């Protein structure tokens, strides 16, 4: 036997450095957490060549299926890439997941009540629990939604909250995505890839299934149909094939067995929405829309929008069609409004938050702003309406000139900025360039709110593939892992 | 005063269009002071009409016309009873109204020139607080003198700061400038769109064309009390000749018609508004 043949992945794992971060797999060098013990043993027995072969096979299948996303740079030319997939799964023990699940159900319940409130009684503002200008000045606050009633008072039906873990392993909510959270198709495809690649390892762990997500999503959408329609017609509305998430749109429509449509395929007549079919018009009851609010209806919003459906807002107002998610949910995605979610939980539910926020300084508050401006070198500064890792300053890694630029922007428009301490995100062993590195990870569970609130166990674990990078967004060079929630 | 209004809008296209969607705000407001006694909207061709009340309390009618067409005619006929002097009691505003009627809106930016214009006419009482009624009245008069009534100088998308710089415009511009001035000094105020009854043999300066009697003016909020209504184009309070149609932050919230359609045709819109006693 040659040296190469006897070498196992164990020697690679043994060189793994914890680097002072909370590690998902190891409590100390060579000492995996108990729920990783089996995985550690099996990985150790593999030889690197065999691991590499499996990895290449998985990559090829992603490319073959066209599971790609588009990255936008400064020049606005989209580049299509495959979303890198790492074969080492992230494992969450049952007791941790139980807390996450409870915490997220609590959170989305409060958020939906907040959305109803700010478009109706505005009680939280009258009682001065959140500043009026923060809500009414938010870019995505939609005045068209005032007084409009949505089925079961649910605004956000599909939510993808981003969780991170600090250096003690506490789960913190980094942001709530209440508009059109994407990535769930990667979650489902990652699981398929893992099942193909490590069938035996799967069998040894009691991993909870996630494959029923499309059915749960369809159940959720059907449960919010207008007038309790017995067999509602649900469609998915996409901006079209040039959208970066088009793969996911077509994937989900196919999995749910529903029609995928573009704006031009729909028409409003007599305040009802129809699809044009070869046999004439067919009424639509629920639209799972992946188009931004202001492009939905050229009559109600931007007249220059060619993506939307004229008259849709009025049909929606009349209760003849349900939109998921509702119009105007983005106000709660505003990063300054986010800071008030724990207060919303106390205000609407009279409970203490189960999951904590990342400590947040608001440009709007004088003391906070002062602190922000004096500590730009230590803080992460974010523009309140940007997502995907754009429009942000990571103080410790920024140049003097970059910090100066943000200083001026904050002074000019304080409401538009928040700052957070740099959280040393937890890390997870991740294989690339022939080695196993500790890479920062987050977790995006998907929460479905219909007649009931459901989560499939786990979510999308995103991983920062650049050495030392804290940004896990797919648009910023991130990859992903399968996420295993274990049975009790 | 009992008044009748006939408001005709004719849309014509040089080529057939399809999928036309139109929203109409033409029903006079019915409140504790002005009474709308009847309202009828007739469309040619005959279309199914739907309605809702928008967040400002305005009545909105809408309809679609999917099939190819080259013309659409709307005729609104209403009858109102206007009070000799107007006051609308409203002890408090919702948090959103409190916010919006003090803030900049699409056609009412709050720049330095408008702010200076507002501040220079602010009237403060002996206790140091702003006298809302006196200041609003002073701003109405100041706006009346700052602008010269001149049609063709501005259009429906002209903003308050542009109108002030031009030194002229029509009722919409007078209204936007006064709104900006009021909001700059912390007075909640809103846009009123409506009609003005002009006696044919007694047409005053700044009166609209009797064949196009649409008008606009300003509602000013007196805290804990309600709305008074001031007309900066005529430097007077809302009179029995003023008919209220809709209110909003500025003109963009209350256009009498708003629509979209599919097709590459050129649109021509002809409007005629007549008010009879």
Describe it.
Chain A contains 16 helices and 26 strands. Chain A is globular and about 70 Å long. In chain A, 45% of the residues are buried. The model of chain A is unreliable at 1-6 and 71-78 (pLDDT under 50). Chain B is an alpha+beta fold and 277 residues long. Chain B has two domains: 2-82 and 256-276, Immunoglobulin-like (Sandwich), CATH 2.60.40.2250; 88-253, C8orf32 fold, CATH 3.10.620.30. Chain B contains five helices and 15 strands. Chain B has helices spanning 95-100, 112-119, 132-146, 160-166, 171-184, and strands at 2-24, 35-44, 50-53, 59-65, 69-81, 88-89, 148-149, 168-169, 189-196, 214-222, 226-231, 236-237, 242-248, 257-262, 267-276. In chain B, strand 11 and strand 12 (236-237) form a beta hairpin. The longest helix of chain B has 15 residues, at 132-146. The model of chain B has no long low-confidence stretch (mean pLDDT 95). The chains are: A alpha+beta (488), B alpha+beta (277). The A-B interface holds A 122, 125-126, 132-133, 136-137, 143-144, 146-147, 267-271, 298-299, 303, 310-311, 314, 317-318 and B 19, 21, 23, 48, 50, 52, 55, 62, 64, 66, 94-96, 98-100, 103, 258-260.
Q: Name the overall outline of chain B.
A: globular
Kindly provide the radius of gyration of chain B, computed on alpha-carbon positions and rounded to a whole number of angstroms.
Answer: 19 Å
Mean pLDDT of chain B: 95
Number of strands of chain A: 26
User: Which band does the percent of strand residues of chain A land in?
Assistant: 15-25%
Largest interface: A-B, 24 and 20 residues
Summarize the amount of helix of chain A as a percent range: 25-40%
Most strands sheet of chain A? 5 strands, mixed
**Cα-to-Cα separation, first versus last residue of chain B:** 8 Å
Summed up, the helix count of chain B is 5
Number of extended strands of chain B:
15
Q: Low-confidence stretches of chain A at least 5 residues in length (pLDDT < 50)? A: 1-6, 71-78
Distinct helical segment count of chain A = 16
Mean pLDDT of chain A: 89
Structural shape of chain A = globular
Along the chain, the helix and strand elements of chain B come as EEEEEEHHHEHEHEEEEEEE
Oligomer: heterodimer
